[in-house]
Amino acid sequence: MKGSKYRSFTFREAGVSDFQEIEKLFEREGVSPGWTDWKYLHNPDGQARVFVAESRADAIVGTMVYMPRHFSIPGKVSVTVMQAVDVYLSENLRDQHVFLGLLDFSWQRVSGAKIGLPNELSAIFASGKSWRVLGN
User: Fold this and answer.
1) Measured distance CA(97)–CA(82) in Å, rounded
2) Beta bridge partners of 89
3) How far apart are CA 25 and CA 77, in angstroms?
4) By C-alpha distance, which of 116, 118, 110 is closest to 131?
5) DSSP assignment of 47-61, as one string?
6) Confidence class of residue 100 from pLDDT cuts 50, 70 and 90?
7) DSSP label at 16?
8) CA nearest to 6, candidates 107, 104, 128
9) What pLDDT shows up at residue 53?
10) Neighbouring C-beta atoms of residue 76, cutoff 10 Å
11) Which DSSP symbol is given to 120?
12) Cβ atoms 4, 53 nearer than 8 A
């Protein structure tokens, strides 16, 4: 998929060939390698949409992943939403609007309902980019 540029960063949808570099980002946070293939491609809920931010040097510096999550009320309704997970941005790039560029790029490409991680730091995903927190 064609990427979008913001300042000196490119945002694009990742491929399997990017998974090893994505794992390296999370190794710095203490996460063991070898998890992306199952989580993003073969988990029970379905294939994830993985987006990355790249520097001018073509190094992946940020990620935003949307995992499908299935909810249902027996005999009534079922719905699939996309949950934002594995949101990461290199520490030296925080507060430089790179995250917002990655959010905007990925948000435009993932259709349907979206939710964030179940913690106060990610509540912004619950209602869209309006930054309104639901449930408080």
Assistant:
1) 23
2) 62
3) 38
4) 116
5) --EEEEEE-TTS-EE
6) confident
7) G
8) 104
9) 93
10) 6
11) G
12) no
Is the confidence at residue 14, as pLDDT, over 90?
A: yes
Residue of 94, 96, 92, 88 lying closest to 122 (CA atoms): 88
pTM of the model: 0.79
Instruction: Give the contacts of 134 (CB within 8 A, at least 6 positions apart).
Output: 123, 126, 127
**Burial (Cβ within 10 Å: 0-12, 13-18, ≥19) of residue 91:** exposed
Phi, psi of 14, rounded to the nearest 5 degrees: -80, 160
Q: What is the pLDDT of residue 19?
A: 95
pLDDT at 94: 76
What angle (nearest 5°) sits at the alpha carbon of residue 12, between those of residues 10 and 13?
160
Percentage with pLDDT > 70 across the chain: 80
Say yes or no to pLDDT of 124 above 50: no
- Cα dist from 8 to 1, 14, 67, 98, 126, whole Å: 19, 18, 28, 10, 29
